[in-house]
Amino acid sequence: MASEYLFIHCERNVNDDYRAISCDQCEKWQHLSCDTGISLRQYRKMMKGAVVEWKCRECRRPAEVVPEVQMETADIK
Q1: How close are the terminal C-alpha atoms of the chain, in Å?
Q2: Alpha-carbon gap, residue 77 to 69, rounded angstroms
Q3: For the chain, where are the E strands, in sequence order?
Q4: What are the 10-residue block averages of pLDDT along the chain, 77 residues in total?
Q5: Please, are residues 39 and 45 in contact by the beta-carbon 8 Å criterion?
Q6: The domain 1-59: what is its CATH number?
Q7: Which stretches make up the PHD-type domain (predicted)?
């Protein structure tokens, strides 16, 4: 972690002293306590080398679905 990065949830600077996790997709940082869903127990295991895949709220959002345009058969003549 480096101080030039901001946490995505609270927008504070990243500090090496913070308990934080990086999104596996966008690689932005988030405090453990800012709605990550990662417990302190899981975090401690990660710090000992356990691999936990995690995505931030933005990256977890489902892709926007664009409705199909329905054409009426009368318009195709």
Answers
A1: 62
A2: 17
A3: 20-22, 29-31
A4: 58 76 88 86 91 87 67 53
A5: no
A6: 3.30.40.10
A7: 10-59
